[in-house]
Amino acid sequence: MATLTELTLGDAVRLLNEGGTTAVGLLESLLSRIDRHDGAIGAYRFLDREDALQQAREADARRARGEAGALLGVPVSVKDLFNVKGQPCTCGSRMLENYRAPFDATVIARLRAAGAVIVGRLNMDEFAMGSSTENSAWGPSRNPWNTEYVPGGSSGGNAAAVAADLAFASLGTDTGGSIRQPASFCGCVGLKPTYGRVSRYGVVAYASSLDQVGPVTKDVRDAALLMNVIAGVDPRDSTSLDVPATDFTATLGRDLRGLRLGMPAEYFDVAMDPEVSRTVRAAIEVCRSLGAEIVPVRLPQTRFAIPTYYVIATAEASANLARFDGVRYGLRAKADDPLEMYERTRSQGFGAEVKRRIILGTYVLSSGYYDAYYLRAQKVRRWIRKGFDEVFHSCDALLTPTAPTTSFRFGEKSADPLQMYLSDIFTATVNLAGGCAISVPCGFSSAGMPVGMQVIGPALAEGTILQVAHAYEQATDWHTRRPQLKG
Amino acid sequence: MSDSTKASAGFDVAYVARLARLHLEEGERAQLQTQLEQILEYVDELKAADVEGLAPMVQAVETENILRSDEVMPGLDRDAALSNAPEHRLDLFIVPRILE
Questions:
Q1: Which tens digit of pLDDT belongs to each residue from A206-245?
Q2: Which of A130, A470, B2, B36 is the most buried (most CB within 10 A)?
């Protein structure tokens, strides 16, 4: 039998329901694996063992009383930007080093209601700005497939933990690819739901018109199981969508006959790693063999995705991060007058990438440049959306690489922000257009690093993309591969 | 700004940093000026997009104003709201003196 920590979320729930283990048993095996291996991986930034054990004991007591819950007793880990009452929430930043969350984010409350045990907090790029976790104020996490490589970002701690069996499942956020790119780099599944599917209340904001909460998991079914718990309208987030509740597992197990899947030429034409292109093309052939009709499509807007994303995301970030002024929470630098306090606080609290994005965002919103940059980017965003709308007239979903390369080495891109930004080229378009997308493992490079295939759907088409990703996953065994950890 | 102007031509990192309430050290300023000029030149590609007649897209999923009934709902209580304050006294956030 597989060791407990190798279980998927779904299998862990099943084993608990069958009486084959307890919540405390699952948690203890996970904590001992974290103790043994996380020194080399650095996925976690915070663990409260006593609190987690208390939650696990309660879950066992609830089960003993005959209570049920979709996730009753299963440990779930979260990115370090969800408010969990009483815990730190540093967002990878010195700015929030000493902050303690005074409330639960809506998704945390939903996890608790389903009986999940909130285990710990996962490392991330500061304020979710980055593609490698190298921007975390607390140091990077490492890719379990090769610790000389980055795990991706910004939800890099999530992907590293899940890939190394240091988490059963996790919640992250995705603004331009921050769930899907690390999932691709570490060989796990990452779902960015449709904007508004999941409440953002209690989630530290980066770019509010793009941010979305979603799962990073060991397989596609686990992503659907987590969505069943976290999705739904929330009166505390007026952008959450009031749509009928869905069983996200409903389409799993269906084959791909009758589905038309588009292959956008622009997602294979750009300067990209030929191994990634070859691997994803082979995965698309598997989808064809499962009954899908593969159709070539064009998305000529693709080359504008990154400039559009970096104008809109940084503009929104510059406004969102204005709240860090040293007055109500977070760091405060000593100063004699308020202006000096703001400037010193923000200069000491924010790291280089955050400053870079705040300055860019402030510039594109500033008098004389607003029309040329921000307004224009919003119009291009509309055009990107129209491009997707048109292809979704003739296709149910699109198949693309998740990222143009596999994971890279530490330091390889950190000196050149623009190169780092380009790793979001295939993912940021989906956040801009308002669709949903999932990354599923589809092979390895010759260097042994995972490759991800992205399935993109229109708004609210999670059922379709989960169906496609699941059919592909079940026809292959990439999701069952595990990195060999030292020690 | 005319289309012939280089995107970064009007970019002065020190000025924008002041708008953003960021104090930059000298070395930091020079590096950011260079990096952001490069990024702005890249962003300038947006000028090549044909956006004639397109309305700006502000939200990912367009929603109208969401209203709720005017009923009192529990929010964060005062002690919790003050619990992370760098400095507070009674019910107040304390800041450096604003008026001389």
A1: 999 999 999 999 999 999 999 999 999 999 999 999 998 8
A2: A130
Is residue A486 exposed (0-12), middle (13-18) or buried (19+ Cβ within 10 Å)? exposed
By C-alpha distance, the chain B residue nearest A339 is: B21
- Mutate which of A363, A366, A429, A431 to test chain B, going by most B C-beta atoms within 10 A? A363
Q: What is the pLDDT of residue B3?
A: 44
Contacts of A206 (CB under 8 A, 6+ apart): A127, A128, A129, A173, A175, A313, A316, A317, A320
Active site residues of A: 79, 154, 178
- Whether the link from the prior residue into A154 is cis, omega within 30° of 0, is yes
Question: pTM score, two decimals?
Answer: 0.97
DSSP codes joined into one string, A324-361: -SSSSSS-----SSHHHHHHHHHHHHS-HHHHHHHHHH
B61 touches chain A (CB under 8 A): yes
Q: Kindly indicate the confidence band of residue A417, based on its pLDDT and cuts at 50, 70 and 90.
A: confident
Assembly ipTM: 0.92
Return the number of CB contacts < 8 Å for A and B: 177
- pLDDT confidence of residue B5: 55
Task: Quickly tell me which residue has 């109500």 as its tokens.
Answer: A328
